[in-house]
Amino acid sequence: MKKIARIASLILTAAILLAAIPFSATAADNLSGKTIIAFGDSLTEGTVWWVNNGYDVYTDHLADNFPNSTIINAGQRGDSTYNASLRFETEVLNKNPDIVIICFGMNDQAWEVQYNRPIIPLYNYRMHLENFTKALQNIGADVIFMTPNPVYEAAYTPTASNNYEYGLMDDYCNEMREIAIEYGCGLIDVNYEFNSRTVSTLVSSDGIHQTIAGHKLYGDLITAYLNAVYNGSSKATATVNCVDENGRIIKTVSHSGASGAKITLAVPEIDGFTANPDTAPIETSLVNGGVHTMKYTSELSAVLAKARRISVRDYSEHALAELRSVCAEAASLLSASTADASAMNACAVKLNALLALAGETETVVSKGASYTATAPDRGDAYDNDGKRLTDGIKGGANGGTAEYAGWNAGNVEVTVDLGALTETNYYRAYVAGGAWGIGEARTLGVQVSADGVSFTKLSESNTVTELAAHDSTAEPWKSYALTVKTDSVQNARYVKFVIGGCAYNSFVWVSEVEAAMSRPLITDKIDIYGFNSSIQAGDAFIFTPDHSPLTDSNSNLRYTYNIVAKLNSAGDYIITEIYANNTNTTNAKALSEGEILVAVHGDPSVENSQDNKEEALKAAIGQKLVFDNIDIESKTLGIGANISLATAYAIGDINADGAVGPIDYMLLKRYCLNTLKLTEEQLARCDINGDSAVGPVDYMLLKRICLGTFKL
After folding, report:
1. How far apart are CA 266 and CA 242, in angstroms?
2. Same domain? 514 vs 591
3. Rounded to two decimals, what is the model's pTM?
4. Is the distance from CB of 40 to CB of 277 less than 8 angstroms?
């Protein structure tokens, strides 16, 4: 240690540091022979006056406390993380350190008054710290983050150019704490330690740099941390359980250090989850057994709730089936006894992608698929990279963009591997030409294969769509979409695109190839969103007798279109009444046993609700309601719950030809003679007297209907 008369300051330091923390290396020093680098700004290097006058900086204390370790001070006055990144390789990485203590942020967060911005924006600060961390961890070095001390605002005077006490320090410290959690790094929370003491004794009269006591505290805190973590001396661990809305643990993080050390536990970022508004960083002291809880809400819950309000008319039958399958997966993940955060996030991503198909009749199945190309590369930046032709990003009209791949050939074959047998019925290639000697490809041939060996050429009809032309007369670029559609659906794993037809033998320029499936959207459905609840604008609900009578208070059937249906002996709900309520008052409606009421509120301002009403207006008395993903008995709805309208065959119309006649009579006679079996649906239509059984009485009644002596 440097020999400077500082008895008074040491007495002050002793008064400040009363905590029982081991400040020197233990007998069993696991840090012996290790290289420890302190990487930082002037808080690490020390000011010019400080160093020139022989005062200790915190690395001097570390050198005293760990005499068998190599302590390197890699601080540089005035540095931000950007400046530090320029010297990181030579001054830190190339020295092959075992441990690197990183302390930046004081200069990064300083406000540049003349530019009205921080010197280093928060996202760039994070990027630099992450780059340091990844590079050091890649060579096996341990990373310890150390938050910078606070600015002593009572002493600090802003300058004309920079303001160090602008109020951003907490944000930058929290960013460092979050990175420590994300990358499993150590953390010494100097900022919190200083704030829990008398800052005026630890920060000098410039309001920024440490006093003798401040540097001593830095050194003592680092020493205590190193002894605890590496030598097991008075080690303590704080644990944070991150839990979802169901109280399940989705992630556990922990920080270890010296017992009694003060630390701020940052709120971890978890993919697919959002911290609740009342979840905040926790300031605590490290004690063994200390467990804390932070609450999160999963994105999966939100996206599943969104899925429960879809309109089935926005999707094809195939897309709806996929949606329901993924929603079932989501519900299972959300209800499981333990949370699988990774699977929940992946499911949310998948479900969001499916919801985004709303209104799309074409589903691209080749996005992200691997592919090969037969033509030789050009040997430049436009060489095929095995990714860009199926990345979902199409090049602009200017063929010079990086999204294009080019080949010196009159045509090129691109074979896409869909990964499994997949249904497709249209194929598209996006090309450009017209400048640089690049030809305008105008033909697309398509071949499909199940094994990648034997290909079948499709019977195809080509269409060429010219996209927006480039606006430069000097470079008359044109871009095209070459499309092939087939009448029949292909079930194949491999799709080969043969692109060519240039006006002359020259380059072929391609930005994307697509294999897709075109399916019609669902029609003629009424979306249902709930049971027995006060209806609001845009809703479509089902009401049952146990909620009857329907009044203003329990149903709010105002400005609604209402369909009443009654359960018949065949188990069908047959429409018996239709009425509209175009007033601001609900007339009480009583439902009898076996009746339901479907109420539709067609508010034009609410998406899909007007379509719902238009479908409901097609209803007619005597039709039956067909339920999809709806259970009337349990009053439960699945994803995409809907009702469609169907013809209700008349009682006695056994052959379902729309009339009751001799053929129906003969069919029932044969059934009664045990010479014919009928389906359950046919038997339901045989129950003329409605006693839930089919027998001689029904046979005699049907005979009388045919003779015209009896009417239903």
Report:
1. 11
2. no
3. 0.74
4. no
Residues 98 and 222 in one domain: yes
**Helix 169-183 × helix 122-138 angle, to 10°:** 30
The verdict on 623 and 682 lying in the same domain is: no
Q: How many whole angstroms separate alpha carbon 379 and alpha carbon 376?
A: 9
- Reading phi first (left if > 0) and then psi (alpha if -120 to 50, else beta), residue 378 is in alpha
Question: Is residue 638 domain-resident?
Answer: yes
In this structure, the answer to whether residues 551 and 511 fall within a common structural domain is no
Structural contact between residues 211 and 280, judged by C-beta atoms closer than 8 angstroms: no
Q: Mapped to the 3 state alphabet, what secondary structure does 116-136 carry?
A: CEECCCHHHHHHHHHHHHHHH
Judged by average pLDDT, the poorest of 223-237, 323-337, 364-378, 443-457 is: 364-378
**Helix pair angle (122-138, 81-91), 10° resolution:** 10
- pLDDT tens-digit map of 134-180: 999 999 999 999 999 999 999 999 988 899 999 999 999 999 999 99
Shared domain check, 44 and 94: yes
Range of the domain at 621: 526-646
Same domain, 490 and 547: no
DSSP annotation string for 667-684: HHHHHHTTS----HHHHH
E strands, 544-674, are 560-567, 573-581, 595-600, 624-631, 636-646
Q: pLDDT (tens digit, 9 = 90+) per residue, 386-443?
A: 888 998 888 776 666 677 888 777 788 999 999 999 999 999 999 888 777 787 888 8
Total domains in the chain come to 4
